[in-house]
Amino acid sequence: MALDDPISAYIAESNMDALHAQRFLESEGVEAYVVEDNEAFGHTFFGALPGIFKPQVWISRRDSVLASKLLAEYERLKAERDASRKANEPQTIEVLCEDCGKTSAFAGSLNGTTQTCPHCRGYVDVGHFEWPYGDEVGGSEDATGWEEGGNPES
Question: What percent of the chain has pLDDT over 70?
Fold first, then answer.
C-alpha cells in the first residue's frame, strides 16, 4: 500500500540500519518503506560528499508521533546492544589462516569481518558475525538454494 503524505522519519547509518529500523516500526504496526543508498555517484576527487546519499525510512505523516517514540526506543536498544557488544568484545582475536596455516592476531573491533592474512594475503574470517535480530537468513539451506549436504532443493 502507498504511504499517505510520506515523510522521512529516520536517516540511517547504513542500508542495514535502515532495514532494521523499518522492521522495528512495522513490528509495532507502523507502515514504513526504506530508500537505500545504492548510488554510485556523490563521490568527488576529494571523496564522498557527506549527507548527499543516506538510507532513509519513510512513513505516513499521520504515524509521525508514534514513529518518533518508536524510533527513540529503537535508538536506545541499538545503543544498548552496541555497548554490550563492545563490553564483551575481546581485545584481540587469534585467527588461523586456512591457506598458509599461520596464526594472526586482529583487533577485537574487527570481529565478524573478513580480513587479509598478513602472511600470505589470503582471506580470513575474524571471529563471528551475530545477526542483530536472530538467525532469520539461511536455515537449512544456504543463499544459493542448496540444502546442507549438497543436495539441490526439490
Answer: 72
